[in-house]
Design brief:
- The complex is a heterodimer of chains A (about 80) and B (about 850).
- Chain A has a 4-stranded mixed sheet with strand order 1-3-4-2.
- Chain A has 2 helices and 4 strands.
- Chain A is an alpha+beta fold and about 80 residues long.
- Chain A has one domain: Alpha-Beta Complex (Eukaryotic RPB6 RNA polymerase subunit).
- Chain B is α+β, with helices and mostly antiparallel strands and about 850 residues long.
- Chain B has 28 helices and 27 strands.
- In chain B, the strands form 9 sheets. In chain B, strands 8-16-9-15-14-17 form a 6-stranded mixed beta barrel. In chain B, strands 10-13-11-12 form a 4-stranded antiparallel sheet, covered by helices on one side. In chain B, strands 2-3-4 form a 3-stranded antiparallel sheet.
- In chain B, α23 runs antiparallel to α24 and α24 crosses α25.
- The radius of gyration of chain B is 38 Å and the shape is globular.
- The relative contact order of chain B is 0.05.
- Classes of the chains: A alpha+beta (about 80), B alpha+beta (about 850).
- The structure holds magnesium ion and zinc ion (2 copies).
- The site of magnesium ion (MG) has 3 residues of chain B, from loops.
């Protein structure tokens, strides 16, 4: 039995980015926050890491071509 | 030039006042033309609505057909009807508002809460929430009125609980809704009022969009829209008469419904719950929605799929003597297509001569914009007028750049730029090497040409789309423009160990590739085929790899290690542009894998590969014509050993199958883990069939390979094609001269047929090999009747699958293309949509463009080597 979604091999790791780090991340990417892709607050993975509206979620996933890639989504209601 | 920029487009709904204001004339008469064929005054063809007769002038604007844009008219409806395309919007409003006071049936605080909660949600979301919160309300909190449930019987009938409410009543209701409430539903009060969704006046479109057609017989035929409008006027008039005559309510309501029907079908003749209006002939009418919607509608057919000038289309035929960059254009086409050129000091005299002596120049446009077609009569006049700044349009000539395309245009390479070569034939010629990217063959395929008209267009085509720059696929990072079929067979034959030419023969090859620097013979007085091939390689070219043939030899157990193969010399070694050993085949030339092509395309200037293809085509064609690639039935005559192998295989199949059936019947069959006994039995039978077939195949391969590869001039061309990887596989050969083996439908033995048996020749309940679809004959012997049926069962599946999969994948492709077409990799490396929303932070998550990779992989060592090399 899988108790947590993140235990499943196909579910990529989600984590909430702290406010301090968020600013760093955005400057590093050189990207406007509102242009980032979104994730619903009610998304099962987002709920699991207790992401709230306005947060930034980091998603680390495995890729057959790039090894490990990092993706960011902003949480919306 | 006057330039204007569209800043925004706003969509709104026409108010009745606006419709009347726009109206050139009010239409009252249901007829179109009178007895004498003149348009009726105030009829649907009234000349106030615009002109479609070139000799008449418009009564509204006074202009002639070309200038007059057409003018809208109007038609007063005696009773209002619902605009069918807005009934959903009405439903939403009715469900959320109060019939008495028109307010949204929520307390002010509640409403405020919803507004706050949905501040940054979409409009759709807010409307959904509003309706959800209000539709079940029994009482209006604003005025305490009782509420009833609203029900929409699509498309236009509204019920209030059980009672029908008519458009007039709905109109009264929605008129009461205040602007501030409407705004919550996304209505800008000045531009859209919901009562305008209920039509009191109908717009009559100009005749320009619904012209009458006069047939050759002189009979006038009206447009479908006109037919529909006639219906509306007729019923409108009847309704008016009945109301004025004080007819019973029931009759009036019936006519009112009929009016609604005609208006509904006038807008959309294909809406659910409404029978489509039919033409007299029984064909259903093509009204407004039908004109816009779908594949044949205005958007997809006329706007997305615009037809263009400067294009040509005809059948394509192969011509290996053209360069891959060239395209052979029929003279007739070339003389019809034009390219503009400007008259300068450099070409003025030449153009004058051309106009005088040739038909090269077709149009001349003077600097003042006057355009003249060059003809025999006005030649001298035009030459006299020709001056700097004139624009001439000349015929297509050798060396011009054109775009060449074959549908379906599924990838970038479906449209490439070629150089024109004008030819006498009436088909478009192309080098067969570019067949693969276009997916073309020559069984009647037609292809299109487009001629870029501007300097920018030509430059873009030449720099971005030229064939020689497209050889490495942007999809998998390997070559896609590759030698095919006879080309591969030809080089295979040329580079066999045994291939040898007398000096006289060799000179023919050298002549083909225009070689002047004739090498010394390498086999006594003779030239080896490999030496001939070596002449077209760059002098500093080095590579080694196992050929396709060597892999097959390895599989067949004829060699132990390709590298050490001395018997057939199949391992490719090229040292300093000399083919020392090895057979040039699929592995050197083929799609995605072609090792030689790969290196030539990446490491040499682009024209080196172009030249290489030019030469390989010539060598291969010469080789193939000299040897002949053709099939005789004697190729498929099985030897004694093959026959014996086959007999053994069949006997074993039958014996083992019998044993399996016995085990099944006596419940002794060991099931495959996770399968049921019956399933397992089927799988065992299938495996058995495959096993027996492969035994025969092995025997055939080992014999055939020796017969081809060991001989000075291979006799077996099917095997030549198989070994070189040009076409076909060993199974094809087994099917021809061995046995077909187990017939299969969807990865299993055929099952569907009669009760408990496939065909009636079998005994019911027989599950053995022969009754289950085992085919022990081959194409040469011919099959037995029942085998033929089994075979057809498998064949049918293939046929159905190709049909279904092209349809399904076509639609899937459309949807993908539509959703991905305006994604762009930005300068910051992100992939974004048209409104700059991010899709990927780095393109493909790894930032790698496959066309610049080696079959999808970044070769770091190679990059290092090359970058350090340049430093020196
Ligand atoms: Mg074809
Ligand atoms: Zn006009
Ligand atoms: Zn009320």
């Amino acid at each position: 039995m899988i108790k947590r979604l993140s235990d499943h091999v196909l579910v990529p790791r989600h984590e909430v980015v702290s406010r301090e780090e968020e600013a760093q991340v955005l400057t590093k990417l050189g990207v406007e926050k509102e242009k980032l892709p979104v994730i619903l607050e009610s998304d099962p993975s987002a709920m699991e890491v207790k992401a709230k509206k306005g947060d930034l979620v980091r998603i680390v996933r495995k890729s057959p071509t790039a090894g490990e890639t990092i993706y960011y989504r902003r949480v919306v209601g | 030039m006057l330039t204007k920029r569209i800043e925004a487009i706003e969509f709104a709904v026409l108010s009745p006042d606006m419709i009347r204001k726009m109206s050139a004339i009010e239409i009252k008469v249901p007829d179109t033309y009178d007895k004498d064929g003149y348009p009726m005054e105030e009829g649907l063809m009234d000349p106030h609505l615009g002109v479609i007769n070139p000799s008449l002038r418009c009564k509204t604007c006074g202009q002639k057909m070309k200038q007059c844009p057409g003018h809208f008219g109007s038609m007063e409806l005696v009773r209002p009807v619902i605009h069918p395309k807005f009934s959903k919007n009405l439903e939403t409003l009715l469900m959320a508002t109060c019939r008495e006071c028109g307010r949204i049936v929520l307390k002010d605080e509640q409403l405020k809460d919803i507004i706050d909660a949905t501040k940054d949600r979409s409009l759709d979301d807010r409307v959904k929430i509003l309706v959800k919160k209000t539709k079940a309300k029994q009482k209006c909190p604003q005025c305490n009125a009782e509420r009833k449930q609203i029900l929409l019987d699509k498309p236009t009938n509204f019920f209030h609980d059980k009672d029908r409410i008519y458009p007039t009543q709905i109109r009264e209701w929605v008129e009461k809704i205040p602007s501030k409430d409407l705004e919550l539903f996304g209505y800008e009060a000045e531009r859209i009022r919901p009562e305008w969704f209920i039509l009191t006046v109908l717009q009559v479109p100009p005749i320009t969009i619904r012209p009458s057609i006069t047939l050759d017989t002189g009979i006038k035929s009206e447009d479908d829209l006109t037919h529909k409008l006639v219906d509306v006027i007729r019923i409108n008039a009847r309704l008016k008469d009945n109301i004025e005559a004080g007819a019973p309510q029931l009759i009036i309501e019936d006519l009112w419904d009929l009016l609604q029907y005609h208006v509904t079908t006038y807008f959309d003749n294909n809406s659910a719950g409404v029978p489509p209006a039919k033409h007299r002939s029984g064909r259903s009418l093509r009204t407004l929605v039908q004109r816009l919607k779908g594949k044949k509608g205005r958007f997809r057919y006329n706007l997305t799929g615009k037809r263009v000038n400067y294009a040509a289309r005809t059948i394509v035929t192969p011509d290996p003597f053209l360069s891959i960059n060239e395209v052979g254009v029929p003279k007739e086409i070339a003389n019809d297509l034009t390219i503009p050129e400007y008259v300068t000091t450099f070409n003025l005299e030449q153009f004058k001569k051309d106009i005088k002596n040739t038909n090269r120049v077709i149009y001349v446009t003077r600097p003042n914009g006057l355009r003249k077609k060059v003809g025999d009569l006005n030649k001298d006049e035009i030459i006299a007028e020709l001056e700097l700044g004139c624009k001439i349009e000349r015929v297509l000539e050798d060396g011009d750049i054109v775009l060449f395309n074959r549908q379906p245009s599924l990838h970038r390479l479906s449209m490439m730029a070629h150089t024109v070569k004008v030819m006498p034939d009436r088909t478009i010629h192309m080098n067969p090497t570019v067949c693969r990217p276009y997916n073309a063959d020559f069984d009647g395929d037609e292809m299109n040409l487009h001629v870029p008209q501007t300097a920018e267009g030509k430059a873009e085509a030449r720099e971005l789309m030229y064939v020689q720059d497209q050889i490495i696929s942007p999809r998998h990072g390997g070559p896609v423009i590759t030698l095919m079929e006879d080309g591969v067979s030809g080089l295979f034959l040329l580079t066999l160990k045994s291939t040898e030419f007398t000096p006289a023969e060799a000179m023919n090859f050298f002549y083909e590739i225009g070689l002047t620097d004739i090498p010394k013979p390498d086999r006594g007085k003779n030239y080896s085929g490999r030496l001939v091939f070596s002449q077209i390689l760059p002098k500093n070219f080095n590579i080694e790899f196992p050929s396709y043939t060597s892999r097959l030899l390895l599989q067949a157990g004829l060699i132990a290690d390709p590298k050490e193969d001395k018997e057939f010399d199949s391992y490719v070694r090229i040292e300093n542009g000399k083919l020392v050993t090895g057979i040039i085949d699929q592995a050197a030339l083929g799609e995605g894998t072609g090792r030689i092509i790969d290196v030539l395309a990446r490491e040499y200037p682009k024209d080196v590969l172009e030249k290489f293809y030019r030469d390989t085509n010539r060598l291969a064609v010469y080789m193939v014509t000299r040897t002949g690639i053709t099939v005789g039935l004697d190729e498929f005559e099985p030897s004694e050993t093959v026959l014996r192998a086959k007999e053994d295989a069949v006997r074993e199949e039958l014996l083992e199958a019998e044993e399996l059936v016995r085990k099944l019947k006596s419940n002794q069959l060991e099931p495959i883990p996770g399968r049921q006994v019956q399933e397992s039995f089927e799988i065992y039978m299938l495996r058995l069939g495959a096993k027996q077939k492969s035994k025969v195949e092995k025997q055939i391969i080992s014999e055939k390979i020796r017969e081809v590869i060991g001989r000075p001039r291979p006799k077996y061309n099917t095997t030549t094609m198989i070994l070189s990887g040009a076409r076909g596989g060993m199974t094809n050969l087994t099917n021809l001269m061995g046995l077909w083996g187990q017939a299969s439908v969807r990865e299993g033995r055929p099952r569907r047929g009669y009760k408990k048996r496939l065909i009636t020749i079998n005994k019911p309940g027989d599950v053995g090999a022969i009754a289950g679809g085992f085919i022990q004959h081959n194409f040469m012997e011919g099959m037995k009747v029942r085998e033929y049926f089994y075979h057809s069962m498998g064949g049918r599946q293939g046929e159905v699958d190709t049909g279904v999969s092209t349809k399904v994948s076509g639609y899937l492709y459309r949807r993908l293309a539509n959703s991905l077409k305006d994604l762009v990799v930005n300068y910051d490396g992100t992939v974004r949509t048209a409104n700059k929303n991010i899709i990927q932070l780095v393109y493909g998550e790894d930032g790698v463009f496959p066309a610049k990779t080696k079959r999808g992989k970044v070769d770091i060592k190679e990059l290092l080597r090359r970058s350090t090399q340049k430093e020196k």
